[in-house]
Amino acid sequence: MTRLLLKQEKTTVMVRKFSYFNPVDNVFNLSFFWKHRQDISELEGFRYDILTRYPSIFIFDYALYSKMKEESRFTQQIFLSLEYNRTRKYALQERPLIVHMIGPGDTIMMREYEKPSKSDAEKFLKGFNVAILKSEDSFYFMDEYFNIITHSTAESIKLAIEMTDYLSRYISVSSKFQIHDMPFSEIESAIRKDDLRKDAQKLESKSNEDQQDEMRQIDTKTDRDAGQANMIGETGDNASHKNDHGKQNDYNDDVDDYHEGFGTNTGDNHFMDSYSANHNAVLNIVQPKINLTNYTDYKSLYDIYHSTARKIILEIMQILDYKINSIQDNRSSGRLMKNPVGPMITGSHKVFTKKNTESREIDAAFTLIIDQSFSMMENLEGCRNGAIIINNVLKTLEIPHRIISHHEDTFEVMKNHYPNTIYEHMDFERSKYYYPVSLLNIEASGDNRDGMILRHEMELLNRRNEKNKFIIMFSDGLPSAEEYNQSGIIDTHEAVQEAAKNGIGVINIFINQDNEENTLEAIKNIYDTNVVIVDDAEDIVYVLPQLMQRLLTQMLL
């Protein structure tokens, strides 16, 4: 359907956080906002994105988009809202019949925008987009009417800057809130290589009969060729049933040559969870390949966070040194105390002293689990950086640990078969010697079946002999997968309880961005008190070291 409307045979369709057409890569992004909703089907939601945004390729002057690169996030959002208004109007003008097809989506989006705002800037952007969905010509805000109609990209740029200048006198326009997206920097670099399409004065007109015939053709094509539509997520091309982690290494420099031991994407481990919600789910274990070029990037990140890790290491080493070198008095054997007067006066025979003989080894094992579902797209970098710090700490202290990421492959789901994948970035055996370099290739994709993943990792920890065992999970929302919404909450909670019964502590690092209060309460119910809440993934590199230092200190004292 997308290729037909865009008249582009090679357009690729992907699922991202926001929906937009990327002219640089010829990719039409659909929003994962529509996934696993109760009020609309996934297909209807994706169709809504396509029908309201497909004219972008014909009417936008992408060559001018680079002018927005240096503007504030707020100005960019106004600009993209104005451009979205243009593409909606063109779509409805050229194909009036779609008004009934996009109606349910408009209603859902308006409900979303009418939710309470955290700032005046957010309130303005939400109200602005409600006016767009209502097909209004202006938007009333703070006793002022704002025009929302433009006829070219140049007009949208000019009006967005004027609006920001006016509003900045009355409200703070410093806001991270986002409704639309566009890779402005990538467009700037692409301009040098290609003359991106200019604004069109008018789309090709069609008679109502032609429109009806075309829409029938679109629906027929969608139904007939759904399995061959090249619908991909960040994991790669669904037509080849393969994801990016499993593709051939173009550099021919498999890290096996450097004894990293990650191997190939064999997916030969199929873990089955007996819990009813996971009856049709199967788990494949993958050891991702990496390129040698990633080592330089990893070393840079390692150096950036080395001082943070070093501080924790020194604190723990001091505690270990104290315990090892401390002297125990009043013992019945060992060396005679320098001053045994006290015990002799009381008639005690414990007049000897003995040096502590404790080992330097810390009796513990850790597993770090990163949710790499679609919603984690903007949070994976923060999680990755936190994992790099923890690997540095645990490796230096010679504490075995395992680092994985996981997702359910949405586009491979079939009836009674829900494939999930664990990517082993580090396993226990190699954790004392090597680095999880493959974390640099981690990408958001699919959904998250947290309970099943927890049980798999618990099984591995249960086989180990360490006294202290912990699982640290990174996530930004509730578990969500095929037939795994409300049941997923129950399943994950029960998995956490099972871990506790087996002496394994499960701690959730929860990124609380754009979550409703009931979501936060549900997360607290799943993990009890073992939840560390951060407002932004960037904060992980600050709170996670503190958590690790506290856990390690409690083990030793």
Largest sheet: 8 strands, mixed
Please identify the structural class as seen in this structure. Answer: alpha/beta
What's the average pLDDT?
Answer: 80
- How many DSSP helices? 16
Shape: elongated
Strand content: 15-25%
pLDDT below 50 for ≥5 consecutive residues: which ranges? 201-268
Any idea what the radius of gyration is?
28 Å
Give the termini separation. Answer: 63 Å
Domain VWFA: 365-551
Biased composition (Basic and acidic residues): 200-226, 239-248
Organism: Salinicoccus siamensis
Region (Disordered): 200-248
Structure commentary:
This protein is of the alpha/beta class and 557 residues long. The chain is built from 16 helices and 16 strands. It has helices spanning 2-6, 42-53, 56-59, 73-94, 99-113, 120-133, 153-167, 184-191, 208-224, 293-325, 341-346, 380-396, 450-462, 486-501, 517-527, 540-556, and strands at residues 12-16, 20-22, 27-31, 138-141, 144-147, 270-272, 281-286, 327-331, 335-336, 352-355, 364-371, 401-408, 418-426, 468-475, 504-511, 531-534. The strands form 4 sheets. Strands 6-7-13-12-11-14-15-16 form an 8-stranded mixed β-sheet, with helices on both faces. A 3-stranded mixed β-sheet has the order 1-3-2, with helices on one face. It has a 3-stranded antiparallel β-sheet with strand order 8-10-9, with no helix packed on it. Helix 12 (380-396) packs parallel to helix 16. The chain is elongated and about 100 Å long. Residues 201-268 have low confidence and may be disordered.
